[in-house]
Amino acid sequence: MIAHIVPNGVNNMPLERYLRRAFPMLPGHALRDVLKRRDVKRAGVRMGANDAVRGGDRIDIYLPERYAPCPPEYTYRDAHLLACVKPQGLPVDVDRDGIGADTLLARARLLNANARLCHRLDAATGGLVLVALDEETEKCAEEVFRRHALDKRYLAVVRGEFDRDAFTARAWLVKDAARARVQILQREARGAKSIETRCRVLSQNHGIARVLLEPVTGRTHQLRAHLAALGHPILGDDAYGDRRFNAEHSGPLRLWCSEMTIHEDALWRADQGRRFSAPNPPWWED
């Protein structure tokens, strides 16, 4: 049983919709079973899928133990830092309304109550996320990311084939915060920020390429939007990509943070030169 308190500020919301947002990794069949059996109680009273929940409500969710949020997989851990492997579909933190009972941060706090995020990764993207375990490490990490004093590498599968093995692409990116989207421009404009992406082709055939991406700049949705603007949208990206092509190749977004290396001269002295890596996702070898 999961005892859960709906965050303050959440307005009336159907129970089913709330549970989907609060527990995004809960399989659809498990959620349907819980709602069908009315295995969610508020003040001891069973709730239906359309019953409204609101901020401050305490609800008890009766689920098999295997569906309860668990500590994250990690590839590095010491007294100050955790290198987690984030599953695709799991948000790193709560959403704009404070909803998120199951997030990477919540899972990390099952290992250490002081866990705090060093940076963010889109929910749809999987792979490495660094988590600080104390305030000093958090501040060091913030400075390292602000100064771009680390290298990040992503694995991706994209549409189309390339006529060169490696290249660096530059453009400008404009963020539309209201729509949670970005736009790529080929020339400088008001409000636009420069972006730079390195790409190395690892293999390609049948109109699909496997690539290694290195974002020199770290803008919101940079890799997804930039590759789409180059005519090579990432497979599984319905926001910036080719929905018809995605429908022919079902599965998650084929984007994975596989490696991070902190620069030798970074201010993060305890971890200068340290390299973190994550195992390849299952879809990489398909």
Describe this structure in words.
- The protein is an alpha+beta fold and about 290 residues long.
- Among the domains are: about 1-65, Structural Genomics Hypothetical 15.5 Kd Protein In mrcA-pckA Intergenic Region, Chain A (Roll), CATH 3.10.290.10; about 155-255, Pseudouridine synthase, CATH 3.30.2350.10.
- The chain is about 15% helix and about 35% strand.
- It has 6 helices and 17 strands.
- Strands 7, 8, 9, 10, 11, 12, 13, 14, 15, 16 and 17 form an 11-stranded mixed beta sheet that branches. Strands 1-6-3-4 form a 4-stranded antiparallel beta sheet, with no helix packed on it. It has a two-stranded antiparallel ribbon with strand order 2-5.
- Strand 9 (about 115) and strand 10 form a beta hairpin.
- The longest helix has 12 residues, at about 135-145.
- It is globular and about 65 Å long.
In short:
Helix content is 17%, strand content 33%. With 286 residues, the chain is an alpha+beta fold.
Secondary structure: elements and pairs:
Layout: E1 2-5, E2 13-14, H1 15-22, H2 28-36, E3 40-42, E4 45-46, E5 52-53, E6 58-61, E7 73-77, E8 81-86, H3 104-108, E9 116-117, E10 126-132, H4 135-146, E11 150-159, E12 166-176, E13 181-185, E14 193-205, E15 208-215, H5 222-229, H6 243-248, E16 255-262, E17 275-277
Parallel strand pairs: 10-16
Antiparallel strand pairs: 1-6, 2-5, 3-4, 3-6, 7-8, 8-10, 9-10, 11-15, 11-16, 12-13, 12-14, 14-15, 16-17
